[in-house]
């Protein structure tokens, strides 16, 4: 691969002159020298080292983003919003997947800081982990001291700009909807306990049930990974422990898709025999059969706002934007069945041993 020195030699100029031509420097270069350098670039098929250019510039052009998993529809939608603003402003987006590993997130903060990104966005949930939070804040403070900008999406114990989806209000909407439909035996498939997102959504749901005189005992909550397989497995465990459930709340839509698969495998009709309610309103929610009733968060707009905060004019005090949740009624949540799980002439409501396909 040709180097800058190779180009300079071929053009018969100094490396500094070749660099000025290639990088579009404002310093004057004669037309004849410019043509010689560009001809050498074409002949040698020279490609500039983007990392070296980044380090040489006083203007940082890249933005680092740490997500839990960009293949997760939740983060894919947020990333669409981030990318939209970054592209409009001519910025390069560097995306890192932490896979919900706190240690990996700390490593990525250091890595992105080493790449001298202009801004850093933490797009995943915060953690209930004091040691991790302390280390993260120390690293972010060191990065901000060099002029870097930081924003978070979700609830983090970090003093700075934040875009906060109203997860607690969303959980409350889900609980109020099911109570209004007459449900009392409600099970919950929740994400990992360590995530603040799980805590907030569950707290809102529990508040709604309490206000309506319902209980949510721990035996009706199953914690799993925030994905389809986690939802399918958690739903199976819920049904095995409590066959009389009339509704299942999944704390994200991927888990809800897994819940529907388990219920279908066990011969349970949704919503005639059991209701399902999701959270996030990812694109596939409207396309599954039956279409998923869920709580909608403005995922793309969350990304837009976070990127706008870090690339816009700074503020003397932290800015926190809370974005609302709304209930989207589709086809998976209905009135509580008038009978128990098994009714005469109908399919049994709970069949042990079924697996989700």
Keywords:
LacI family transcriptional regulator, Rossmann fold, alpha/beta, six-stranded parallel β-sheet, DNA-binding, 12 strands, four-stranded parallel β-sheet, Lambda_DNA-bd_dom_sf, 434 Repressor (Amino-terminal Domain), single chain, 357 residues, 3 domains
Plain-language structure description:
- The protein is of the alpha/beta class and 357 residues long.
- The protein has 3 domains: 4-56, 434 Repressor (Amino-terminal Domain) (Orthogonal Bundle), CATH 1.10.260.40; 63-165 and 301-325, 3-Layer(aba) Sandwich (Rossmann fold); 167-296 and 328-341, Rossmann fold, CATH 3.40.50.2300.
- 43% of the residues lie in helices and 14% in strands.
- It has helices at residues 4-11, 15-22, 31-44, 50-56, 73-88, 102-114, 130-145, 167-180, 196-211, 228-241, 253-265, 299-311, and strands at 62-67, 92-97, 119-122, 149-153, 161-165, 186-190, 221-223, 247-250, 275-277, 294-296, 320-323, 326-328.
- The strands form 3 sheets. Strands 2-1-3-4-5-11 form a 6-stranded parallel sheet, with helices on both faces. A 4-stranded parallel sheet has the order 7-6-8-9, sandwiched between helices.
- Helix 11 (253-265) links the parallel strand 8 and strand 9 (275-277).
- Helix 1 packs across helix 2, helix 2 crosses helix 3 and helix 6 (102-114) packs parallel to helix 7 (130-145).
- The longest helix has 16 residues, at 73-88.
């Amino acid at each position: 691969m040709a180097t800058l020195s190779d180009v300079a030699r071929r053009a018969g100029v100094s490396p500094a002159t070749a660099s000025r031509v290639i990088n579009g420097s404002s310093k004057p270069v004669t037309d004849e020298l410019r043509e010689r350098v560009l001809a050498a670039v074409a002949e040698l098929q020279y490609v500039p080292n983007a990392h070296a250019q980044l380090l040489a510039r006083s203007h940082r052009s890249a933005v680092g983003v740490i997500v839990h998993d960009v293949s997760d529809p939740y983060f894919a939608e947020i990333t669409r919003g981030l990318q939209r603003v970054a592209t409009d402003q001519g910025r390069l987006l560097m995306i890192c997947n932490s896979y919900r590993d706190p240690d990996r997130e700390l490593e990525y903060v250091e890595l992105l800081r080493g790449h001298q990104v202009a801004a850093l966005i933490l797009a995943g949930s915060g953690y209930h982990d004091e040691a991790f939070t302390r280390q993260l804040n120390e690293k972010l403070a060191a990065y901000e001291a060099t002029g870097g900008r930081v924003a978070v999406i979700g609830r983090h114990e970090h003093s700075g700009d934040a875009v906060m989806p109203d997860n607690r209000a969303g959980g409350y909407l889900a609980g109020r909807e099911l109570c209004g439909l007459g449900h009392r035996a409600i099970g919950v498939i929740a994400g990992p306990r360590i995530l603040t997102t799980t805590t907030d959504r569950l707290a809102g749901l529990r508040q709604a049930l309490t206000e309506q005189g319902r209980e949510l005992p721990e035996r009706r909550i199953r914690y799993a990974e925030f994905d389809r397989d986690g939802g399918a497995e958690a739903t199976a465990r819920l049904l095995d422990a409590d066959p009389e459930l009339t509704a299942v709340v999944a704390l994200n839509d991927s888990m809800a898709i897994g819940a529907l698969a388990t219920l279908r495998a066990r011969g349970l009709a949704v919503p005639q025999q059991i209701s399902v309610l999701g959270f996030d309103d990812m694109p596939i929610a409207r396309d599954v059969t039956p279409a998923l009733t869920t709580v909608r968060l403005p995922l793309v707009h969350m990304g837009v706002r976070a990127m706008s905060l870090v690339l816009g004019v700074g503020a003397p005090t932290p800015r926190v934007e809370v974005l609302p949740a709304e209930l989207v009624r589709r086809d998976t949540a209905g009135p509580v069945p008038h009978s128990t799980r098994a009714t005469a002439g109908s399919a049994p409501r709970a069949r042990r041993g079924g697996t989700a396909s």
